[in-house]
């Protein structure tokens, strides 16, 4: 789940690997519930999908760019395009279905 220090957000979401971005906040209870779910998702899909956590309070311009009004908001990107987005907590198995339905995963 770690990213290279040299890689920018833009480079990551414009890559061919699907990227699930979790827009969240420190003070948000449901956001804290997403952390173990995203860890489970990473365990299920491994390197087939990248997972980024973006703190909306530390990145207000990015949050505004995607009109994030509630947290957690999950957005799935691939090749720079928004494939799917939803606000609220979702279980890992449901996220796997969403990712497989919308993104092209490497074999």
From TrEMBL:
GO terms, biological process: cell redox homeostasis
Active site: 28 (nucleophile), 31 (nucleophile)
Site entry (Contributes to redox potential value), positions: 29-30
PROSITE patterns to which the protein is assigned, alphabetical: THIOREDOXIN_1, THIOREDOXIN_2
Keyword Transport: yes
Signal sequence, start to end: none
Gene Ontology MF terms in the entry: protein-disulfide reductase activity
GO cellular component: cytosol
Record's keyword annotation contains Electron transport: yes
S-S pairs: 28-31
Keywords attached to this entry: Disulfide bond, Electron transport, Redox-active center, Transport
InterPro entries: Thioredoxin, Thioredoxin-like_sf, Thioredoxin_CS, Thioredoxin_domain
Protein family membership: Belongs to the thioredoxin family.
Protein's name according to its UniProt entry: Thioredoxin
Organism field: Panacibacter ginsenosidivorans
């Amino acid at each position: 789940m770690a990213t290279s220090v040299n890689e920018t957000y833009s480079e990551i979401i414009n890559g061919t690997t699907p990227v699930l971005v979790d827009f969240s906040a420190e003070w948000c209870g449901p956001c804290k519930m997403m952390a173990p779910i995203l860890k489970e998702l990473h365990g299920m899909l491994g390197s087939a999908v990248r997972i980024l956590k973006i703190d909306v309070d530390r990145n207000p311009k990015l949050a505004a760019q995607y009109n994030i009004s509630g947290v957690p908001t999950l957005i799935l990107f691939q090749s720079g395009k928004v494939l799917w987005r939803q606000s609220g907590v979702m279980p890992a198995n449901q996220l796997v279905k969403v990712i497989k339905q919308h993104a092209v995963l490497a074999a």
